[in-house]
Amino acid sequence: MANDIVVAADETAATRILHDAEKTLVVPTQAGSASLAGYNTSWSLSVNFTDGDVSLTPPDVIRLANVQLHYSITLSIPIDLNAFLPPICPPPVCFPVPFVGLICVPLPCITWPTINVPVSISDTASFSADFALTTKLVSGVWQVEVAIVRIPKIDLGPAANAVIAALGPAVAGALAPIPLAGIAVPFILASISTAAVTGLLGTILAPLLSNLKFTIYKQPQQFQILGAAGAIDPAVFITLLDVEAAVQASDKNELVLSVDI
Amino acid sequence: MSLTGTHHLFAGVSEDGINDLVAAFFSARPRYLRFGSPPFVGATTASATQTPSLPFPGVPGGVPYLVQFGLPIFDLSPVDPLAPPPPSLVLGPGQVSIFTTVDLTLGCLGGDIGRDRPRKMSPTETQLDVWAIGTPVMGGSGIGFDISAVDLPQVRPDSLRDVFDCLLEMLLAGALRALRLPLQTVTVGVAVLSLEDGPTITSDELDVWGSIT
């Protein structure tokens, strides 16, 4: 054995290690704006990941199949009602002026407001992707991560359909306080296609997935092997001088960590 | 052949790794190599463990003594041909040979020790090489090493050597009882291993197998 300590996990144990890593991944809520059918839409996104079937491929690839991506998306779609409703132009006000006759004063037309339509959906999508092992020592902490190799294909059709389904009541609700504006609802809904929603969701998710990493090992370089047991028995530490991670092939492919102390 | 075999998790520590772990333990807790009665050890501290003097009739206060072991060096089977144990000890498969030194110091009390007057104590010391054979065992708090045989090849005659072999087997076993390597140590925190097989020594390394919890 060239290294001081070797730890190996087969695909069953590696699956458990990856699932635990998914649980510890905390993705901060993302927010931004993007175009949805021409509307400059604000969005916020929160996600977490679970499950997935692990297969190990030497020398350093871990394939995760059917990872569950749990997401909640909130959209705020600004809709200028003037694009759908004609301005209301009241007739001029006329009044008689002695010795002059009838004087008529035109009144300004009333324009429609821009409304913000909120839409929120939560759902789960699944994806499969290859992840590559990387090892690094950062600020005295050894970390072994699996980083996604390329953005996977995700079927966003169901999510887009959910947005479209939620859009109807959301638009109607936003227009309800505005007299006469309700007639614009079908026209507004017709302006936002499922394809446009799919495109927006892809735009939101792509940056998140392209940088997706799970940390499967994280320990301080000064690794404690025994805790303190009173004042006369201090904690015992060893130094992890080097950590390497790889997938090794044999009768079983294994995730192997090799450590020098 | 896979490392995990029929199990899901494997951890192996090389002979060098074992010696690094042992050195780390005894460097942090040297009191487990130094045992003595007053006046050699006034109180148990991180540096030394106080033990009572050897009581004996007519020796008020008992016989003072100090036992200081050197850092044990472990040789996992097969035997290291450059540093084999003495011929009286055989390193069998799955075993470990341990070499250390022991400083034995007796607090030799001068004058008539039966009289109630201050006596002069002169430390009398010898250093001996100690070889031991042991096997790894899994205890409640981790992997330890049980001693099964000890030899002090420098001691003569044979009858005295037998006495010292027995004495040092007990003392060394007692000192090593504190050395426990948790499973979390041999997996360096990769995962929590539920032990199913081992600890086993083969080809200069100590291995354990299990499942992940």
Structural descriptors:
heterodimer, A: 261 residues, alpha+beta, 7-stranded antiparallel beta sheet, 3-stranded antiparallel beta sheet, 4 helices, 14 strands, 21% helix, elongated, B: 213 residues, 7-stranded mixed beta sheet
How would you describe the overall organization of this protein?
In chain A, 28% of the residues are buried. Chain A is of the alpha+beta class and 261 residues long. Chain A is built from four helices and 14 strands. Chain A has helices at 11-24, 157-175, 185-190, 194-210; strands at residues 5-9, 30-36, 39-50, 53-57, 61-80, 93-97, 101-105, 114-138, 141-148, 213-220, 222-226, 236-239, 242-248, 254-260. In chain A, helix 2 (157-175) packs across helix 4. Chain B has 213 residues and is of the alpha+beta class. Chain B has three helices and twelve strands. Chain B has helices at 15-28, 158-176, 183-186; strands at residues 9-14, 34-36, 49-50, 54-56, 59-63, 65-69, 73-76, 96-109, 121-139, 142-151, 193-202, 205-212. In chain B, strands 2, 3, 6, 7, 8, 9 and 10 form a seven-stranded mixed sheet that branches. Chain B has a three-stranded antiparallel sheet with strand order 1-12-11. Chain B has a two-stranded antiparallel ribbon with strand order 4-5. In chain B, a hairpin with a 2-residue loop joins strand 9 (121-139) and strand 10 (142-151). The radius of gyration of chain B is 20 Å and the shape is elongated. The interface between A and B is large, with 36 and 40 residues.
